[in-house]
Amino acid sequence: MRFDETYSGNVFIKSYPNYEDSQAVLYGMPMDWTVSYRPGSRFGPTRIREVSIGLEEYSPYLDRELEEIKYFDAGDIPLPFGNAERSLLLIEQFVDKVLADGKFPFGIGGEHLVSWPVIKSMFKKFPDLAVIHMDAHTDLREDYEGEPLSHSTPIRKAAELIGPNNIFSFGIRSGMKEEFQWANEVGLSIAKFEVLEPLKKVLPKLTGRPVYVTIDIDVLDPAHAPGTGTVDCGGITTKELLAAIHEIAHSNINVVGADLVEVAPIYDHSEQTANTASKLIREMILGWVK
Prior knowledge:
Blueprint: E1 24-29, H1 44-51, E2 58-59, E3 64-65, E4 71-76, H2 84-100, E5 104-109, H3 115-125, E6 130-134, H4 154-162, E7 167-172, H5 177-186, E8 189-192, H6 196-202, E9 210-216, H7 238-249, E10 254-261, H8 272-288
Parallel strand pairs: 1-4, 1-5, 5-10, 6-7, 6-9, 7-8, 9-10
Antiparallel strand pairs: 2-3
Helix pairs in contact: 1-8, 2-3, 3-4, 7-8
């Protein structure tokens, strides 16, 4: 991946043309090699960029414009199709470089397993890292049908690396009974069904700490985000998710990186999900990149 010129494909609206002077780096992780239900999220980063042209650059929520933030769209990391282990290594190396250059990494998935190598990289630079995780699913399995590299395992892997007491999950409404039991036993915080109100209680505990935020689009109810691989009814609204993003923006935590994953355009016939994702990314960039 080159950093000395703008990505030649579609770029997210108002992206800055120069890597060296950028504050943040937007990058795609087009991988869906391990999904257990419907594939297609590898096409998410490209479609989210394409529909971002319909966004206004101004956020009435935050009273900021994208031109106020120098973020460079580096395009998609070229990942070897079907090779999960190699793909994860390339993602980790990419984020290592972004962090070494003092920039805010913002990833677009891809399946949720792509967050695992990013968290590994973040933990190398921030040993007191905490993770805020918004999702329909616990993602706490040790393996899926005997395979440890699965989109159902990244939060378990992250918890074993940085400590389960440093993981805070919100909006969870699906998972194996054993996953919930394990979380309870080791002190991993799970807020079931809701995001905003439990998030408000957790944020003061994270004041001043470096925090990585990972959002699976399926934390939203399928009525709001049908274009995802593993839909799960009973989710939150887009209004609540936007409010949660802004709550983080106005808090005293230090967001040091973020991702949004699991948008699968093939199931998004009205493009509702991709458009929602692009707006969420705009708000996260404007709210979290200081």
